[in-house]
């Protein structure tokens, strides 16, 4: 039952940490400095936060660390790193240790990289795309102008 889905698409704005992760296997905060820190439209005066999150026209996606991503990492680690044990408790503990290590690296070093098998497992179910504020405005305009009737 349910809707057959082959892949879930992660749609991101210019705060594209998940898009970059799926491209490279590295989940890394991307600090924004100088002229590149300007965000949004010129007339709205939006600027980037000092910690690297850019203000965009899609504010619900103006985040640097995705909490749901941690859950995905746990499930993938559970599947990949627990192949040689039948103990459900040991599988859960191994997955937890892997995710804890990645999260520690994120907090300490600003990012972490996963092994190819982890990235491949995630890519099997997910793809990602990013859009700019200009693309967002264009899409909203095009949908608004779409012929009605």
From TrEMBL:
GO molecular function, one term: threonine synthase activity
GO biological process annotation, one example: threonine biosynthetic process
SUPFAM superfamilies xref list: Tryptophan synthase beta subunit-like PLP-dependent enzymes
Protein name: Uncharacterized protein
